[in-house]
């Protein structure tokens, strides 16, 4: 199987992402992880950019042994001198030098004629070759360059000593068909092309970086360049983890191998995200939080029966521990039962059905059902027939008059079956209710947070109260709803207390079983 080289530029093009700035220690940390990931070449920075970048490239070049380390330079002698200063410590120093070849860039940016650009290219590569055994030359904005001119300058670059030729789609303008065709064209029209490796470098402005990279590979690219998580200038570079996993998963189609250790992907992605401060979007291919998450019942059922029904790559392949069946309003009984089982609940089918109905009702009101929510639902069901009991609100009443402390009278049935009534004042109606409940509940209650909102629209909307409290040191969130705000608040308070009570009763039950 043909093998291609992976050139990582997370520390150079990736660091060109707006708002990203890595110090030497951070760059070194990422470089070590890239080495574990198995990249063939890593571009550690742009040594002429700043003393800090020169220092970082130097540290990386002297530390990394299993990947080749390179640095970028313009076609300017002083840039190459800076790069040599940083890279001479490497086992096999490698330079990456570039100049733009498109009419737009040559005319407006470089203000050089095509002939001058060819001459600068030749002179620069020859100068660099005095120091560096390996010189990679890039034709910036190659895709928007005149093809015949590109073929001519590539031929000259190889003659001058470049052993890797990079053909970037600098502004992410190419389509896969066109980018692939450009590689084919160069293979067929540059007489000495076999003396150098041909490299692809794709940006993602139109979201086609992965497709373009794969098209280049199919048309003879020997190396591909990209970054972890696809970070980079503007919309970023091609995401190396996506290309790596695509080549591996579809090796039946591409027939291409790499030296990448794919199960280092997750760790590498997380490290880069953490140190650059660039979050990975949840639905990003391969490394997104949702890449192995299944939310809907039909998918969850399929995955439980046979993961390959909905997973074309295993979580383990990229170093992820497992897939994730997220319970929400689209989930079905199979996933619900599976989670209940993994939490230690063995319910008969009737109890499971009842618990599932409660779960669906709650799922309509909450985005995500937590394990704590499930615990409460399942425990309620499991304890239904046993001797356990909780606090039940019988009535709540409030006496309120402007400029006076309100009084609340609360009547509750205790777990022991006694009816207890308390009347207490408070700074407000809700506080008066909580004070009365505090007197009734046996144990120490401390309210941490409380809020009410309406469910639905209109004057007759239901009120939902959510309360976070500690009860005998345990803390939990309780919630309940009612037509009236005050009743919802009292019920939410008891809901939290009862959940904690049920948890300890359930633990007791599980211990004795
Ligand atoms: C497609 C890419 O990703 S290319 C890499 C982009 N990365 C970076 O630019 C990061 C590092 N850059 C820097 O720190 C600075 O831009 C430096 C140190 C390189 C240069 O800084 P300055 O000397 O202040 O120049 P400035 O950045 O403003 O302008 C760039 C100059 O380089 C010239 N230039 C641009 N590319 C090249 C090239 N490949 N070869 C030679 N000259 C070039 C421009 O024409 C311009 O020249 P001018 O001053 O004669 O008009
Ligand atoms: C410097 C070159 C290789 C580059 O990053 C680009 O053209 O996108
Ligand atoms: Mg680039």
From TrEMBL:
Biological process GO annotation list? L-leucine biosynthetic process
Pfam families in alphabetical order: HCS_D2, HMGL-like, LeuA_dimer
UniProt binding sites for Mn(2+): 13, 201, 203, 237
Region spans: Regulatory domain = 392-513
Pyruvate carboxyltransferase domain location, by residue? 4-266
- Gene3D superfamilies in the record: 3.30.160.270, Aldolase class I
The protein's annotated catalytic reaction(s) are: 3-methyl-2-oxobutanoate + acetyl-CoA + H2O = (2S)-2-isopropylmalate + CoA + H(+)
Coiled coil spans: none
Classification via PROSITE patterns: AIPM_HOMOCIT_SYNTH_1, AIPM_HOMOCIT_SYNTH_2, PYR_CT
Gene Ontology CC, one term: cytoplasm
A GO molecular function annotation here is:
manganese ion binding
| Entry keywords, A to Z | Acyltransferase, Amino-acid biosynthesis, Branched-chain amino acid biosynthesis, Cytoplasm, Leucine biosynthesis, Manganese, Metal-binding, Transferase
Q: Entry's CDD domains?
A: DRE_TIM_IPMS
EC numbers for this chain: 2.3.3.13
| Cofactors that this protein relies on | Mn(2+)
Q: Which SUPFAM superfamilies match?
A: 2-isopropylmalate synthase LeuA, allosteric (dimerisation) domain (SSF110921), Aldolase (SSF51569)
Associated pathway: Amino-acid biosynthesis; L-leucine biosynthesis; L-leucine from 3-methyl-2-oxobutanoate: step 1/4
Per the record, the similarity remark reads: Belongs to the alpha-IPM synthase/homocitrate synthase family. LeuA type 1 subfamily.
Q: What's this protein's function?
A: Catalyzes the condensation of the acetyl group of acetyl-CoA with 3-methyl-2-oxobutanoate (2-ketoisovalerate) to form 3-carboxy-3-hydroxy-4-methylpentanoate (2-isopropylmalate).
Show the PANTHER family listed in the entry: 2-ISOPROPYLMALATE SYNTHASE 1, CHLOROPLASTIC-RELATED, HOMOCITRATE SYNTHASE-RELATED
Q: How does it assemble?
A: Homodimer.
Name of the protein:
2-isopropylmalate synthase
Q: Which organism is it from?
A: Lederbergia citrisecunda
Q: What is the lineage of its organism?
A: Bacteria, Bacillati, Bacillota, Bacilli, Bacillales
Q: Which gene encodes it?
A: leuA
């Amino acid at each position: 199987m043909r093998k291609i080289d992976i050139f990582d530029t997370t520390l150079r093009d990736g660091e060109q992402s707006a708002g990203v700035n890595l110090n030497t220690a951070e760059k070194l940390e990422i470089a070590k992880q890239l080495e574990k990931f198995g990249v063939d070449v890593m571009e550690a920075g742009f040594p002429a950019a700043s003393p800090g970048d020169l220092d970082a490239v130097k540290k990386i070049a002297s530390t990394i042994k299993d990947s080749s380390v390179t640095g970028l330079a313009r076609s300017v002698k002083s840039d190459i001198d800076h790069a040599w200063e940083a890279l001479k410590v490497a086992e096999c120093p490698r330079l990456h030098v570039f100049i733009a070849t498109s009419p737009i860039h040559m005319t407006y940016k470089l203000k050089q004629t095509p002939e001058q650009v060819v001459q600068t290219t030749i002179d620069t590569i020859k100068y660099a070759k005095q120091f560096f055994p390996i010189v990679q030359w890039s034709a910036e904005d190659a895709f928007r360059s005149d093809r015949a001119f590109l073929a001519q300058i590539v031929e000259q670059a190889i003659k001058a000593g470049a052993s890797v030729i990079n053909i970037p789609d600098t502004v992410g303008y190419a389509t896969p068909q066109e980018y692939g065709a450009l590689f084919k064209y160069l293979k067929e029209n540059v007489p000495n092309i076999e003396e150098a490796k041909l490299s692809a470098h794709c940006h993602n402005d139109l979201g086609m970086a992965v497709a373009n990279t794969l098209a280049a590979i199919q048309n003879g690219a020997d190396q591909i360049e990209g970054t972890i998580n696809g970070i980079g200038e503007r919309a970023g570079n091609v995401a190396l983890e996506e290309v790596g996993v695509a080549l591996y998963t579809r090796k039946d189609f591409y027939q291409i191998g790499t030296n990448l250790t794919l199960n280092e992907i997750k760790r590498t992605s997380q490290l880069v995200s953490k140190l650059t401060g660039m979050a990975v979007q949840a639905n990003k291919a391969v490394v997104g939080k949702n890449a192995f998450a299944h939310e809907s019942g039909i998918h969850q059922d399929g995955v439980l029966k046979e993961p390959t029904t909905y997973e074309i790559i295993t979580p383990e392949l990229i170093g992820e521990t497992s897939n994730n069946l997220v319970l929400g309003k689209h989930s079905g009984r199979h996933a619900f039962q599976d989670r209940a089982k993994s939490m230690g609940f063995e319910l008969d089918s009737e109890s499971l059905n009842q618990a599932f109905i409660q779960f669906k009702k709650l799922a309509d009101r909450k985005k995500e059902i937590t394990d704590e929510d499930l615990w409460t639902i399942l425990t309620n069901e499991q304890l239904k027939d046993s001797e356990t009991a909780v606090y039940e609100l019988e009535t709540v009443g409030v006496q309120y008059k402007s400029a006076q402390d309100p009084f609340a009278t609360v009547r509750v049935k205790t777990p022991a079956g006694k009816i207890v009534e308390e009347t207490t004042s408070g700074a407000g109606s809700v506080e008066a209710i909580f004070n009365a409940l505090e007197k009734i509940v046996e144990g120490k209650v401390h309210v941490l947070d409380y809020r009410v909102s309406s469910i639905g629209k209109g004057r007759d909307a239901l009120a939902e109260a959510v309360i976070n409290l500690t009860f005998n040191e345990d803390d939990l969130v309780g919630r309940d709803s009612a037509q009236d705000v005050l009743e919802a608040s009292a019920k939410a308070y008891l809901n939290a207390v009862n959940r904690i009570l049920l948890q300890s009763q359930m633990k007791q039950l599980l211990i004795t079983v």
